[in-house]
């Protein structure tokens, strides 16, 4: 069998044209080269393999113990599609640059802005937070509020990236304020809560929470150099965001699942029921039981951190 090396033709196939003129060819828009596209494909491949690995690990567990595997696999699955889009030179739009630079790294009147990146983050960052905050067993109102602020951060980042004038930095400032609150919850409230759940939970949270805090602070720096300040080339942007995403998704996910290896989700208040569960089966056979027997209303016993899923 012979393996023929095929050239990456995504840039020609999916070039952005205005009135029939390719924007890459007329040199107006600063966009990725084939190297950037190749890198996006490579990251896509890692995301796909990680998704299969996390799903493979999930099926080795009983259904009641798979919640963190499912959340983590969903994260890399969504990222696979975003990276497929970016590798194919799709999911972007040209935006006039605020800062015109005459360097080879950042020439052109327009810059390609990958809005698909933000669609990915809009879906996956709340899932990452869910992974972390469920590990810490934080009360659900705090969890919901942190996710709301996370959406504020991502949407302001997207809007700022699509704005041509200096007003983009206003959106950026709102996004940074939202990130500051998220980091506060992770570093103080959630860490304290996780430690109170036991040494193993505290350890799993500390590893994954520290990695997340460090990485998430680097994203606005990347934004400032790419979408915001137009300082670095879109190929370098691909590498910067790509490395961050690889650590924030597959590496984070592997660490989290490893940290959860000896932890029953029920200890975190996540009582998940299955039809072949022993206690539930006995309860269902009880005379007069109607099959719902209190498991459908989401209310469990007096423990305030309990959540019925
Ligand atoms: C933006 C710009 C606006 C200000 C801030 C930002 C932060 C983004 C972050 C993104 C995290 C993404 C992750 C992706 C996972 O793969 C939107 C860049 C603060 C923190 C973890």
UniProtKB/TrEMBL annotation:
InterPro entries found in the cross-reference section: Arc/bac/fun_rhodopsins, Rhodopsin_retinal_BS, Yro2-like_7TM
One term of GO molecular function: photoreceptor activity
Annotated coiled-coil segments of the chain: none
Gene3D superfamilies: Rhodopsin 7-helix transmembrane proteins
Pfam families: Bac_rhodopsin (PF01036)
GO BP term, pick one: phototransduction
PROSITE patterns for this protein: BACTERIAL_OPSIN_1
UniProt region (Disordered), positions on chain: 286-309
A cellular-component GO term for this protein: plasma membrane
Main location per the UniProt record: membrane
Taxonomy, superkingdom: Eukaryota
Family, similarity comment: Belongs to the archaeal/bacterial/fungal opsin family.
Name of the protein: Family A G protein-coupled receptor-like protein
The species this protein was found in: Baudoinia panamericana (strain UAMH 10762) (Angels' share fungus)
């Amino acid at each position: 069998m012979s393996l023929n090396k095929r050239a990456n033709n995504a840039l020609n196939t999916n070039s952005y044209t205005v009135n029939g003129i390719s924007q890459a060819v007329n040199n107006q828009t600063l966009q990725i080269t084939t190297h950037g596209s190749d890198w996006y494909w490579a990251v896509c491949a890692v995301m796909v393999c990680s998704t299969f690995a996390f799903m493979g690990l999930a099926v080795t567990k009983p259904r009641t113990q798979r919640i963190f595997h499912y959340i983590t696999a969903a994260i890399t699955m969504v990222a696979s599609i975003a990276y497929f889009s970016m590798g194919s030179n799709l999911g972007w739009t040209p935006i006039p640059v605020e800062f015109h630079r005459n360097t080879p790294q950042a020439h052109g009147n327009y810059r390609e802005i990958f809005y698909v990146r933000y669609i990915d983050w809009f879906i996956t960052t709340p899932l990452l937070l869910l992974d972390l905050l469920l590990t810490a067993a934080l009360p659900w109102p705090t969890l919901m509020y942190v996710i709301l602020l996370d959406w504020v951060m991502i949407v302001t980042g997207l809007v700022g990236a699509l704005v041509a004038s200096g007003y983009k930095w206003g959106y950026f400032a709102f996004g940074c304020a939202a990130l500051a609150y998220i980091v506060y919850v992770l570093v103080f409230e959630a860490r304290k809560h996780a430690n109170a759940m036991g040494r193993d939970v505290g350890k799993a949270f500390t590893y994954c929470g520290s990695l997340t805090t460090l990485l998430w602070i680097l994203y606005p720096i990347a934004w400032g150099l790419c979408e915001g300040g137009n300082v670095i080339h879109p190929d370098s942007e691909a590498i910067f965001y790509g490395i961050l995403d690889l650590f924030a998704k597959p590496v984070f996910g592997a660490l989290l699942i490893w940290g959860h290896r000896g932890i029953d989700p029920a200890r975190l208040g996540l009582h998940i029921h299955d039809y072949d569960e022993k206690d539930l089966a006995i309860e269902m056979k009880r005379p007069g039981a109607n099959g719902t027997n209190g498991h459908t209303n989401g209310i469990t016993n007096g423990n305030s951190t309990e959540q019925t899923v």
